[in-house]
Amino acid sequence: MIKTTETAIKLLEALPEHEQERVIEVLRHLLQDSQDEARWDQLFNRSEKLMAAAREAKTTVAEGNATDMDYERL
Q1: Residue 67 φ then ψ, to 5°
Q2: What distance in Å separates the CA atoms of residue 71 and residue 34, rounded to the nearest whole number?
Q3: 36 contacts: CB under 8 Å, gap ≥ 6
Q4: Where does residue 5 rank: exposed (0-12), middle (13-18), buried (19+ CB within 10 A)?
Q5: CA spacing 20 to 30 A to 61: which of 13, 14, 37, 72?
Q6: Could you say which DSSP state residue 64 is in?
Q7: In this structure, is residue 74 part of a structural domain?
Q8: Are 66 and 60 in contact (CB under 8 A)?
């Protein structure tokens, strides 16, 4: 455990129990929000890659460089 976490736990333990519960609930929400943001970023990055692939395919078709898909190679 890193030192700042240990310090935070000591500070938390010094609070009355009802305050500890309130702080923990706020932390749960913050951690959930952080995880949600990370998932959103991951999905957004994937969609950007998909959009870039779609733009490249559109350009290839427009330039007349497209070939039929070989389903045997999939």
Answers
A1: -125, 160
A2: 41
A3: none
A4: exposed
A5: 72
A6: T
A7: no
A8: yes
Contact criterion met (CB below 8 Å) for 10 and 4: no
Quick one: how far is CA 37 from the chain centroid? 5
Q: Report pTM.
A: 0.54
Count of structural domains, the chain = 1
Residue 65 falls within a domain, yes or no? no
For 22-73, write each residue's pLDDT tens digit: 999 999 999 999 999 998 888 877 788 888 888 898 999 899 988 888 888 8
Owning domain of residue 49: 3-59
Closest among 48, 72, 67 to 57, alpha carbons compared: 67
Q: How far apart are the C-alpha atoms of 4 and 61, rounded to whole Å?
A: 56
- The answer to whether residue 69 sits within a structural domain is no
Q: Crossing angle of helices 3-13/17-62, nearest 10°?
A: 140
